[in-house]
Design a protein that fits this description.
two-stranded antiparallel sheet; mainly alpha
């Protein structure tokens, strides 16, 4: 004698849950790509590397050359070198994407040297992106959209 317990999913919930890992992955990837694009726009925009300009061979005007201000744009090479690398998948729901400058002197501008003051233009953006949890908010929006579409 035995008791057989059976379960039949007439509601489709299990089928929906089977797609959940894919939807989580898609939502995380979308969040990473969106925030990376936002970071690039902020780094190269009006409050970042596009804030101050002066001609090559002229001295940097006073408000621009102080520590804490982004470097002044002379040739635009630093600003134009900021690129986002391809999205990398590390595992389920685990993605990263780097946005960084590609010129040699970018590190000296960001961190300063013994003769050049620190002119950070990446760290403020990194701080803002983390403090407002933009990636988490986008992830939740995308996941809600996915769950709604799976439920229909």
């Amino acid at each position: 004698m035995q008791v057989t317990t059976e379960f039949s999913d007439d509601t489709g919930v299990l089928a929906m849950l089977a797609h959940l890992p894919d939807e989580v992955d898609r939502a995380v990837k979308q969040a990473v790509q969106t925030v990376s694009g936002d970071a690039k726009r902020e780094i190269t925009g009006r409050e970042g590397l596009g804030k101050w300009r002066h001609r090559k061979g002229t001295s940097t005007p006073s408000p621009m050359n102080g520590p804490g201000n982004p470097p002044a744009q002379i040739t635009g090479n630093l600003r134009n070198s900021v690129q986002s690398r391809p999205v990398v998948r590390h595992g389920l729901g685990d993605y990263s994407q780097e946005t960084l400058p590609g010129v040699v002197y970018s590190r000296a501008q960001e961190l300063g040297t013994n003769v050049l003051p620190r002119r950070s233009y990446i760290e403020p953006v990194r701080y803002r992106m983390r403090s407002n949890n933009r990636a988490g908010k986008i992830f939740m929006q995308e996941l809600r959209k996915s769950l709604k579409s799976l439920g229909n």
